[in-house]
Amino acid sequence: MASKTYHHGALRQALIDETKAILAERGHDQFSLNEVARRLGVSSAAPYRHFTNREELLTAVATEGYDLLYRALQPAAGGTGDPRERLLRMGGAYVRFAHDHRELFMTMFHDRHGSTPLGGESFDLLIAAVAAAQQAKVLPGNASPELMARSVWAALHGLAELVLRRPGKRFGFDAPPEELAVTTLTTLLQLEP
Amino acid sequence: MASKTYHHGALRQALIDETKAILAERGHDQFSLNEVARRLGVSSAAPYRHFTNREELLTAVATEGYDLLYRALQPAAGGTGDPRERLLRMGGAYVRFAHDHRELFMTMFHDRHGSTPLGGESFDLLIAAVAAAQQAKVLPGNASPELMARSVWAALHGLAELVLRRPGKRFGFDAPPEELAVTTLTTLLQLEP
DNA sequence: ACCTGAACACCGTTCAAGT
DNA sequence: ACCTGAACACCGTTCAAGT
Fold first, then answer.
1. Is A62-188 CATH 1.10.357.10?
2. Class of the A10-51 domain?
3. DSSP string spanning A12-24?
4. CATH 1.10.357.10 residue ranges in chain A?
């Protein structure tokens, strides 16, 4: 299939893409560097021309994951309309992303890789949405937007993590992501409908 | 050191204990079944008389972890006194546990093992504390105790997870666990001092 | 500059054999 | 019943050598 010179300088990106494909199939802890190389038709030593080790490849994948998360949150955050709906849409998008990209999400937040952005740009979207909600008196203004955004992020992130654990019925985490996000945020923040 | 018959039927528990010791030293993804056996002076096949595979040993460790978490929450949950303080103490204890038992906590919530209790008994403690807070009008009564407890758990769990990622300064997750729990809960739930 | 081939120590797991 | 010894395929990583 692939000739010997197929990856003319593009092996680095091919490694990242193939890793994402494997993550979508198998679990992120089943991932093997040798398998990626095998599937791309290169030797098991080839990846080391582009990444110093297995961990650095996963860091690159996680970084693309943070970018993907940002682009999933953007449409939800960009809408005008009332600030309450905007905040709930963002929450739904966050939990939906975790649900739809299980293994990528776990790679982003569970794997031990060097310093990752940890969703810095996504966090800015949340701060803006929270600030707007505070100005519209949908959220209380006694906490700074940064602090409120951090707290909301914790709630959404914990929700996403617990959903991914697929717990038993008794905890009720088996509802659709958007519904869970709305229920959790309205309960905690006492948002009136 | 250890004679050949040292583990007279107690190898199972010794494997669990040694795994916990390794977790405290190294990371939970650095853990190797062979190393546990080596440190206990048994062959690498010996563990398979007590666990069908590596995953099942980690499940046993996680189960002990859930028990430890329960015992860490109990004193915080048991206190009489006002319901607001009780809820904040429980939150602090949860995040403190994650902080003090990093690798065990990750084993409990990140590793892919068979169905674990997921802190069912701990969840009951939280439901009781939430119900008491609702009756004292510290928390709103428009949501059921179960639903409110689930939401509070999500917030605390997300907080714990994000603390464990050791993010940069900008997110502010580098404060003491108890302080973070109090700040997050009071911000979200609008608890008055 | 980028990749191969062969090698290293290590891993999880199996299985016949020992007591 | 419980453990050993040896073996298997596989893994991450290194390095001299090829183009």
1. yes
2. mainly alpha
3. HHHHHHHHHHHHH
4. 62-188
pLDDT in tens for each of the 193 residues of chain A?
Answer: 333 445 767 999 999 999 999 999 999 999 999 999 999 999 999 999 999 999 999 999 999 999 999 999 999 998 778 999 999 999 999 999 999 999 999 999 999 887 778 888 999 999 999 999 999 999 999 999 999 999 999 999 999 999 999 877 788 899 999 999 999 999 999 997 6
- What does the block give as tokens for A40? 């791309």
Phi, psi of A112 (to 5 degrees): -95, 80
- Tell me whether A123 touches chain B (CB under 8 Å): yes
Residue with tokens 């639903």: B147
CB contact under 8 A, B188 and A120: no
Residues 26-85 of B with CB under 7 A from strand C: 31-35, 38, 44-45, 48, 52-55
Going by C-beta distance under 8 Å and a sequence separation of 6 or more, which residues neighbour residue B156? A154, A158, B91, B94, B95, B181, B184, B185
Between CA B6 and CA A185 the distance in angstroms is 55
Q: How many residues does chain A have?
A: 193
Total residue count of chain B as it appears in this document: 193
Task: Write the CA distances from B175 to A156, B163, B182, integer angstroms.
Answer: 20, 9, 11
Nearest to residue B108, comparing CAs of B48, B146, B46, B164? B164
